[in-house]
Write a structure and sequence with these properties.
The chain has helices at about 5-15, 25-40, 40-50, 60-65, 65-70, 75-100, 105-110, 150-160, 190-205, 210-249, and strands spanning about 125-135, 135-145, 170, 180. It is mainly alpha-helical. The chain has 2 domains: about 5-190, no CATH class; about 205-249. Strands 1-2 form a two-stranded antiparallel ribbon. A hairpin with a 6-residue loop joins strand 3 and strand 4 (about 180). Helix 1 (about 5-15) crosses helix 6 and helix 6 crosses helix 8. The longest helix has about 40 residues, at about 210-249. The chain is elongated, with a radius of gyration of 30 Å. About 15% of the residues are buried.
Length: about 250
């Protein structure tokens, strides 16, 4: 796994989770800047051409026109492309979780073995070039060649996921947001807050009678406590009124 792959995956999951309909001006400006780096491989293309001994063939460059001619960041076309990219990234994550058997609450309860319900096959190419020289470490330059931005993003995300555990991308059953877990430890929830909320709801559902009894006892205790407070206030007010009447005598 290359350095920075996890950070890139973190960006893509955050991007997939964004509510673009209600995004604030500051977040939108930040997104438009970051999107150029992650959604269009212009820098990857420059890097590849800097080490490649031969220019890219005309038929390849014809395929790459979508990545070369990036719309202006101030245009409506750019924002439309960002929206379409978000849908493509979200779909790729959904396909990945289906392929790797997402541990949904339903599967956990029934102990059902997840089945591969979809196979992802690509129809694009990958250009590669090996660089090696005096005191230069062995390196491989890869450039996904895709016919569209959506295909490129799918290929890029799967390349980032290569070598990671199968549960590297998950959909949190609590907040319904994607999150990255690059460790070998399986993780159902994106945070402890979501875990506690869902586990509490599940406990209340499975132990409904016990929970209702607990709530009744709790309400009784609160009612008794409130009654005692009222009695205490009434007793104090009567003492004060008697003390005041004696003082007048």
């Amino acid at each position: 796994m290359k350095e920075g792959d996890t950070e890139a995956l973190q960006w893509f999951t955050g991007f997939a989770n964004l509510d673009l309909e209600h995004i604030g001006p500051g977040d939108k400006a930040k997104l438009l800047v970051e999107a150029t780096e992650h959604l269009w491989p212009k820098e990857e293309l420059k890097e590849y051409q800097s080490v490649s001994p031969v220019p890219l063939p005309a038929e390849i460059m014809e395929k790459l026109q979508w990545m070369v001619k990036v719309p202006s960041g101030e245009s409506a076309e750019y924002w439309t492309a960002v929206r379409q990219s978000q849908a493509a990234v979200g779909e790729t994550f959904v396909r990945y979780t289906l392929l790797t058997g997402h541990p949904s609450p339903e599967n956990v309860k029934t102990k059902a073995k997840p089945a591969v319900v979809q196979v992802v096959r690509g129809h694009d190419e990958v250009l590669w070039w090996v660089a090696k020289g005096y005191k230069v470490p062995y390196t491989v330059k890869l450039l996904p060649v895709a016919k569209s931005q959506n295909d490129y993003l799918t290929l890029k995300i799967f390349m980032l996921l290569d070598g990671l555990p199968q549960h590297a991308i998950r959909l949190c059953p609590g907040c319904k947001r994607f999150f990255v877990n690059p460790t070998n430890r399986e993780k159902r929830f994106c945070s402890e807050r979501c875990m506690r909320r869902i586990c509490t709801a599940e406990y209340r559902q499975t132990h409904k009678q016990a929970y209702n009894g607990y709530q009744k006892d709790l309400m009784k205790d609160r009612y008794k406590e409130e009654c005692n407070k009222r009695r205490q206030v009434g007793s104090d007010s009567r003492r004060k009124s008697k003390g005041g009447s004696h003082a007048n005598l």
